[in-house]
Specification:
α3 packs parallel to α6, α7 packs across α13 and α10 crosses α11. The chain is 32% helix and 18% strand. The chain has a 10-stranded mixed sheet with strand order 5-4-6-7-1-8-14-13-9-10, sandwiched between helices. Strands 2-3 form a two-stranded antiparallel sheet. The chain has a two-stranded antiparallel ribbon with strand order 11-12. The chain has 2 domains: 244 residues, 3-Layer(aba) Sandwich (Peroxisomal Thiolase, Chain A, domain 1), CATH 3.40.47; 152 residues, Peroxisomal Thiolase, Chain A, domain 1. It is an alpha/beta fold. It is globular and about 65 Å long. The chain has 13 helices and 14 strands.
């Protein structure tokens, strides 16, 4: 098959460290933590009382106030990031074939707050079933892509991928494949999540998955550090405009990077724990590099899943060493979750965006909050600890791994005319 080239022509971000792409990148470059005490509900009785929340989000910049009430926050976030990306791309919807323009987003959970609110309203009422008529369309996970499609009139493929924390990386890879297989020309892709809620914090606390460093939230997400005690929950959205290369050139679009490959695998091991030797993770990276037509030596930066969990960080490092061999010591490796927290289904989109900007700007964001080496992690690896690293980034690989053993990796590289 004659595969078409796919490029990135627009970006949008709404994150715990910035509500625009520029703010997000400045936060990453300067090692800013987005963690702080939870403000969305009273978390005083929970073991974990902090998260990486989106701050100062003004929905009326993107939506009419009346219309916003019909949407769960995760859809509001998605529409905001999509609008930024479309505006950044300069796409004129009157000058493209809307039948060949689609929307594929990822979300791991969707409208959890809506579900919580409706259940609470029923159980605390007089027993009469009174439900909001928008309950179902606010809650269902696919609806964020539907709203974006309706807003821009994109009539091509339209769906949401669900693979836990790998969801939005799967979405980006699906969009990439549709374009290179000549099934579409343009996609709005990425992911959104808004689950800083009582049930989400409570559920992850019950699993003992979250950090409980309540006395110092800003240092709680500490991938690779010996004192790490779990991940920090995050929220937000990121959207990317993927476009066929000739289509982008014909309309004079600016191009951030070229997407060149990706892959998906399964651990087939455990519902929440990674394979201890990183087998699924090593397989997905190897296959992504092969799919891109590259060699391991062509990758300069790996944006790791790096959640700050005891098992996950070690397994991923083992996988990197297995795939890259001696070149692993020439790579920059970093976890931007140390700053943004873990955005669950939106993590892959935010981290793909970070990888694209790293390629564009030749800067590797840091892994912050590292103070104590872990004897189970090779100290000779360049984990980009605590400070960003300026270097040429020819190609960046971004990993995301989800509960259920879902693994997905994508690769972006500098554009070659």
């Amino acid at each position: 098959m004659n595969l078409r080239r796919v490029v990135v022509t627009g970006l949008g971000a709404l994150t715990p460290i910035g509500n625009t792409v520029e703010e997000f990148w400045n936060g990453l470059s300067n090692g800013v933590s987005g963690a702080g005490p939870i403000t969305k509900f009273d978390a005083s009785l929970f073991k974990t009382q902090f998260a990486c929340e989106v701050k100062n989000f003004d929905v009326e910049k993107y939506l009419d106030k009346k219309e916003a009430r019909k949407l769960d926050l995760f859809s509001q976030y998605a529409l905001a990031a999509a609008q930024q990306a479309v505006e950044d791309s300069g796409i004129d919807t009157e000058k493209i074939d809307l039948n060949r323009a689609g929307v594929i987003l990822g979300s791991g959970i969707g409208g959890l707050k809506t579900l919580e609110d409706e259940v609470i309203n029923f159980t605390t009422g007089d027993g009469t079933p009174r439900y909001n008529p928008f309950f179902i369309p606010k809650m269902i996970v696919d609806i964020c892509a539907g709203h974006i499609s309706i807003k821009y009139g994109f009539k091509g493929p339209n769906f949401v991928t669900v693979s836990a924390c790998a969801s939005s990386t799967n979405a980006i890879l699906d969009a990439f494949n549709y374009i290179r297989w000549n099934k579409a020309d343009v996609f709005i892709t990425g992911g959104s999540e808004a689950v800083v809620t009582t049930s989400c914090i409570g559920g992850f606390n019950a699993m003992k998955a979250l950090s409980q460093r309540n006395d110092s939230p800003e240092t709680a997400s500490r991938p690779f550090d010996k004192e790490r005690d779990g991940f920090v929950l995050g929220e937000g959205a990121a959207c990317i405009i993927l476009e066929e290369y000739e289509h982008a050139v014909a309309r004079g679009a600016k191009i951030y990077a070229e997407m060149v490959g990706g892959a998906m695998t399964a651990d087939a091991h455990h519902i929440t724990a990674p394979h201890p030797d990183g087998d699924g993770a090593s397989n997905v990276m190897r296959l992504a590099i092969e799919d891109a037509g590259l060699k391991p030596e062509d990758i300069d930066y790996v944006n790791v899943h790096g959640t700050s969990t005891p098992l996950g960080d070690v397994a991923e490092v083992k996988a990197i060493q297995k795939v890259f061999g001696e070149h692993a010591y020439k790579l920059n490796i970093s976890s931007t979750k140390s700053m943004t927290g873990h955005l669950l289904g939106a993590a892959g989109a935010v981290e793909a965006l970070a990888s694209i900007l790293s390629v564009k700007n030749d800067l590797v964001p840091p892994t912050i909050n590292h103070s104590t080496p872990d004897e189970n992690i090779d100290s000779n690896l360049n984990l980009t600890l605590n400070k960003a690293h300026q270097r040429t980034v020819r190609a960046a690989l971004s990993n995301t791994f989800g509960f259920g053993g879902h693994n997905c990796s994508v690769i972006f590289k500098k554009i070659e005319e």
